[in-house]
Structures are given as C-alpha cells and as structure tokens.
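Suppose a classmate hands you a notebook page containing two proteins, each written out with its sequence and a corresponding row of structure tokens. How would you begin to make sense of it? This section walks through that situation. The first entry is reproduced here exactly as it would appear on such a page.
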Amino acid sequence: MFSDADAAALYDVLNPWDPGAWPADAFYEALLADADSVLDVGCGTGAMLVRAREQGHTGRLVGLEPDRAALARARRRTDIEWIEGTAADADRQDVRGPDRQGEPSGFTLVTMVSHAFQCLVTDEELRASLDAIHSALRPGGVFAFETRHPRARAWESWTPDHASTVEYPSGRGLRVWHEVESAEGGVVAFTSTTASAGPDATVLHTDRSRLRFLDEAALDGLLARAGFLIEGRYGDWDRTPVTAASREIITLARRPARPA
C-alpha cells in the first residue's frame, strides 16, 4: 500500500526546502525575513514556513493548503497556523485574521512557491484567486510567485527517461516519473507515477494533474485586473531580467498603498 500520507512524506524527500542548496528557496527566505506576517498559499507540507520559524521569524505565519494529507503533515508543527483551503479562500476571515495592535487584518507578504501558481488552470480560478490574494494583503503588501516560462517548454522533459530514484523514509527504494498526456491551449496535463525501485517496478501510486503556462503579457493582464502593480519581474533567482532563454517568470506584485 502507498497512501496519500506516504505521498506527502515522499514530497518532502523529493523537494527538501534548503536555501543553502536551492536559489529559489534562498530568494523566498529573504522575502520572508523582511515580512512581519506571511500567508503561503498552496503551502504543501509547510517546509518553507517551518524553516522561517526555525530561523527566528516571530510574526504571524499562515499556511493555506487544499490537500488534507499534506496539511496533516504540516500540522505536526503547532506554532504556525495551518488552514484548509484554496487560493480563492485567501480572503476568508479565518485566514486574514483579526486586527492586530492597531494594524488592519491581512498580510504584508503572500507567496505561492514551487510553481503552485500554475495549478490555477482556468480563467475563473485565476481571477477568483488573484482577487482573494489582493484582498488578503494589507495595503502596500506584496504577492510573490513564479511560473515556468512557456517558451522554455519544460514539459518536454517530463518523461520516464528523466525518472528520479529515491529512498523513502522507511528505507524503501522508489522510482518517480512524469508523462505528458496533452499540451494544448497553454495547459499541460500529465501523470506522476510512483513505483517500487528494482526490476519489478510495481506501480504504487498515480496522480493526474494539469498546469497552466502563462506568458508575461497574460500574467500582467490578470494582475492588473485584480488591482496589482508589478514591482519586480525576473527570469532567474539572481533577479536578472526575463530574456529569451529564461526558464522562469518570477513576479513581485504589490497591492497599492492607496486605491488608484
């Protein structure tokens, strides 16, 4: 058997949060260090917020996640708020929280890391989510996220030939790979398969997912509609501009301090 809880534990093995090893993690860690209240939308198992608390962050940290198995794993840490919900729930009162010491409710920073923004597939999901995130931010607050640049066509390498072989926490060897089913209209549908390592390669778990690939113009139109101003746009984690060779579109979008 390979349960949803096992899949959540495997995610941490495949995607350890390590700012010393991964420039993306270091980029977000620096943003969190300067923010007194943070909402991580699509927080998964919560590794980024846990790291922030361990590094001495004393402000309000909230993780919002729809996957119950991932959230159960995150909830092992009790000094962070973990809430079940999607990006469109970011403006719920239980997420925004009460007014604190004369400050309005909401956050100075909202993040969607590890390409979580691409899980918003339909125009309706994108509009509802961006409206909610805008509302969850305090005036002057920042929404930070990244998407894979569609020009880089990352999905072309999602094949069994690029499988990862890892050791599960129990010591069990596992092999994980992806296979694309379709890539149409900016949406890529694919399966993620977990199998036992070795000659038998018994399939233990299969997930089906869809991701949306948006270019800069489409992103900017959606952000402007929701009331955001683009404060930063980068093609790599060293804050260099987006170029023809960029694999990422990294965005810092600010909620204006005053209505336009």
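The notebook's second entry, a different protein, reads as follows.
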Amino acid sequence: MTAGPVELTCAGRVVAEYVTRPDLPAALSPRPYFHPVRTFAGTEVTELTPADHRHHLGVSIAVPDVGGRNFWGGRTFVRGRGPTWLDNHGVQRHLSWAGRAAGAFTETLAWIGADGEAALRERRDVRAVAAGDHWALDVAFTLTNATRGPLRIGSPATNGRPGAGYGGFFWRAPGASAGLRVRTPHAEGEQAVHGARADWLALTGTAPDGRAWTLAFLPADAATAADPWFVRVAEYPGVGSSLAWERSLQVPPGGSVARRIVTVVADGHLSDAEIGKLREALCPAR
C-alpha cells in the first residue's frame, strides 16, 4: 500500500517529497525515495522509474548485493553469467519515525530479503538546510547487520563486472536535461571522474524550459570521502557514492556502516569557487 508523500520544506518552500511506502513491483526492490526534488525556483532535478532503468527511484539508498539479496532492483550481476534475473529482490520497509519536522526527519527501516528475514536495520537522518540562495539535502544513514552471521555488502564490480561498483546513496537526475556536465575540483568528464575520490562532485544541466541547475555532492565525513564516485552521463545522468567499489564490505553481526552525503540543489550553474565555499559552510568538520 502506498503512503502519501512526506513534504520536506526549506525557507518556507516545499523542496522535496519523500515516499516511505511505494507501491512498486518486487523487481524494482521497493524502497523509500525522494521525488520530485526541486530547486528553489521549482526546477525538478530527479527522475522516477525512467524507461531505461525502471528501478532508478529519484534519490534513494540502494545496494545491489547484501549477502546475495538485491536491494537495487533489476537484474543481478552473476559471475560467469552476467546480468541475470533472479528472485532475490528485497524491500526496504519503513518502520517508524524517531523524529519528524517540516525540514527534517529521522526514520528507522528494515531491509527485508525475499525470504522475509531482515538483513539490515537502518537509521536514516535527513535535513533540508538553507545554503545561501540555494538549499542542500543532508542524508545520513547507518546500516546495521541484522543477521546472526557476517554479512557481505557487494556490487557488480565485486562480482566480476569492472567499473560497476555502484551501491549506496544514488541520485538519478532527469534524462531530458541538456548540456550535462560532470566535474570534480581536479577533473572533468564522465571517464575522468568515474571511480575518483574527491571533496565534491558537481553535475550540471539545463531543463527543457531553459532553466539551468547544479547538483553538488559533498561527502560529509571521512568514511564517505573515502568512497569512489559512481558516475553516468552518456547513458543516463546519475551519481552515486559507492560502498563496495572494488572490494566487498564485510559487516560482522551487529556491526554497522555509516555514511553521510550533503547535496547542494541550486539554480544556475555554480562555479568551482562557489561550490568550494558551500562545502566549507555545510561540511566544516571534514
């Protein structure tokens, strides 16, 4: 059953909607997501279930391999077979609100496998914060092993597909955008920044109505800063922070993995200097 979206506000404006219990096919690995996310001027900067990847759900936390369970959606990459349809799709189930306000919430979730058992428990902390003329979506999540044994968090890359180390925080941007450009402080272009570690990564584009936008992704702690960026532009516009780029994560029973990403959602095309100043203001502890 689909629950109504939760509105996230910043500076008196609704900037995002968050769906906690989407009514989606099992093959999409149903999970809470943000969509639409908008700039202050109202430009949408997310896309939901696009035709090229139906399992891309705006902004979400998604992992393709949690001890063999698919919490990403779509096909599973199997070593020696390639992308394969398996009956292994899990669901992220909203359990409760630990706190909730107009511009922030804390949520508890269970990641339930196809066998009905919980693989992970999650605490998710979200804030919408003002950032000068723009705003930022601050998402922190802690994944805790809910099984009785060690739990492996992997990706297609750890299962034999080089360069496909996706899994974790993921943002699907609108495919209809023109003039897409991706860059870090030291490199530009999909091939140059895909797999790189950087203090920020910016994706810019122009909506069909001619309004420009920028998404500036900022790792807000040392653990997140150590994760490589997963980037797509030519095939579709998407950016993620990768939990298991080349090596899987081994999480002991009761152990946790915590990450935090702050994403500036801006009208116009921000310069490197502007992004640097926003990073200093929004992530001062880094």
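A careful reader of the second entry would note: The longest helix spans residues 272-282.
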